[in-house]
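S., here's the first fold you wanted:
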Amino acid sequence: MSQPRLPGVSQLIATLTATMPGLLCGWREIAKFCRKSPRQCRAYVRFGLPVYRWGKNIYSHPGPILRWLAERERARRVRKGL
């Protein structure tokens, strides 16, 4: 008796994007949303940019990114005394 074949990662991500509107998949989409380069966004991960990895895929949602960007801007203004 053969076991049913499990869906691949790309199929699961396609299902996620269909059920979660606004989900950002890949560095290019995340960077476009942040108005930064993909390279800069990859560097921001060290500073807490909320992205999630699933195998080789990377994804995030706009809400946590907006909160992170707002907190980062607030901290920058506090450091500069603005």
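And the second, which I think is the more interesting of the pair:
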Amino acid sequence: MSFDLRTSDLRTFDLIIKRISRTLQRITQKLNGRFSFMDHDDLYQEALLQLWIDFQGGRLEAKTDSYILQGCYFHLKTTFARHRAAPRS
């Protein structure tokens, strides 16, 4: 898998993260402790990874910060649901 990243793309992504980082940290702190397999830092990294994937897919263009943060929140909730539903051995 190769990425053709332009400097302007990285700057744009960096600006998005700088704008929403504080609120995203609060969201991950709110969700922290619900499951022992992920701590606050893991949740934050999971949210950033999903943001990167959405950014690369063009799904963050012309979206408000609120829309982006809601997407992060629902992604993390879905991650919890998947782990809860996974069969245990």
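Why I say that: Helices lie at 7-31, 40-56, 65-85. The chain has three helices and no strands.

Talk tomorrow,
H.
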